[in-house]
Design goal:
Flavoredoxin, single chain, 7-stranded antiparallel sheet, mainly beta, Pnp Oxidase, Chain A, Flavin_Rdtase-like_dom, flavoprotein, 3-stranded antiparallel sheet, Split_barrel_FMN-bd
Length: 189
């Protein structure tokens, strides 16, 4: 039997992304976000939801671009920190020791030390409630060579990302390999 828990954000897990943007004076800023996901395959697009009070909110509206840097597990401390403090009052790159890199394709920085980067051009935004969802067309993906598989594409185990559990306010490492999608289910055909 299932127990009703009411209306909550318990879609488990959620991604841990670091959103990059430039401030009013061109200063690089990053923030951790968990409300995000791929929302379209053609054009390749993602959505990330931010509150209006965040520095990144105004930055993205002004520049019409942002990046998503996907951290590996070895950077959980730095990632958590950039989600705790405000970019309005803190230079998150200086405190964490992370390196901002200016994107060559959008007007936003990304994190050099993180293995997977999605560079996005803002295409839509939707006021939902306390969050606004920013839809970005992915105009380029950058990956460290050591996270690529034989096919030249990123491998989850090599990226070594982590997820967020909304119910526990906790991070979890990427899970074990369970099987190939669109294949393991064929046993039931």
């Amino acid at each position: 039997m299932k127990t009703s828990l009411g209306a909550h954000t318990f879609a488990l897990p959620t991604p841990v992304w670091v959103v990059g943007s430039y401030g009013e004076n061109g200063e690089p800023n990053i923030m951790a976000a968990a409300w995000g996901g791929i929302c379209c395959s053609s054009p390749p697009s993602l959505g990330v939801s931010l509150q209006k009070s965040r520095a990144s909110y105004g930055n993205i509206l002004r520049t019409k671009s942002f990046t998503i840097s996907i951290p590996s597990q070895k950077h959980v401390v730095e990632t958590d920190y950039v989600g705790i403090v405000s970019g309005k009052d803190n230079d998150k790159f200086s405190v964490t020791g992370l390196t901002p890199v200016r994107s060559e394709v959008v007007n936003a920085p990304y994190v050099e030390e993180f293995p997977l980067i999605l560079e996005c051009r803002l295409t839509h935004l939707f006021e939902i409630g306390v969050h606004t969802q920013f839809i970005g067309e992915i105009v380029d993906v950058k990956a460290d060579e050591d996270v690529l598989g034989e096919n030249g594409l990123p491998i989850l185990a090599k990226v070594n990302s982590f997820t967020y559990s909304t119910t526990e306010r906790a991070y979890y490492g990427s899970g074990e390999y369970l099987g190939q999608s669109h294949s393991v289910g064929l046993k039931l055909k």
